[in-house]
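Justification of computing resources. Each target in the renewal requires a structure prediction run like the one illustrated here; the chain below, 150 residues long, is used simply to show the kind of job we budget for.
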Amino acid sequence: MSFLTEEQLLEYKTNGYLVVRGLLSAQEVHDTKQEIHQIIDDWYERFESTGKEGAGWQEVVNRDPAVINGDIAPDDRYLTVRKLYRMAGSNEFFLKQAKHEKSTAIVKQILGPDIRLLQSMALLKPPGTAEKRWHQDNAYFRLTPLDVVV
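Resulting structure tokens:
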């Protein structure tokens, strides 16, 4: 099944990214936000009971350095987290999202049928924290050929 038009495919090939409006329903967006909040709540429950970031949990929840250093202290705990890592590997909801029918159909349309998930991450950058400058992820992952990542 094709979700992208020829114009969208050309836009992806030209710009290296593509915005797909309406990819997720309003309910899917709501459920995703709720699951992110649950992961953060679970992390804080462990953190508050042990006083430690916790081995393994830092692999999933990454608080912003400005929060850790005490430079900012948001009232909302959800604004303290900069990233969530490896969600599909540790959370059933995000594993299901990684297999989202429309998303995987679009990736297959761009790359072909042989796809694999390398990483799942949510970037949540809190307000008032340092900018994340433009960069190429391949500087970290060193994948070849370069057309293997979407």
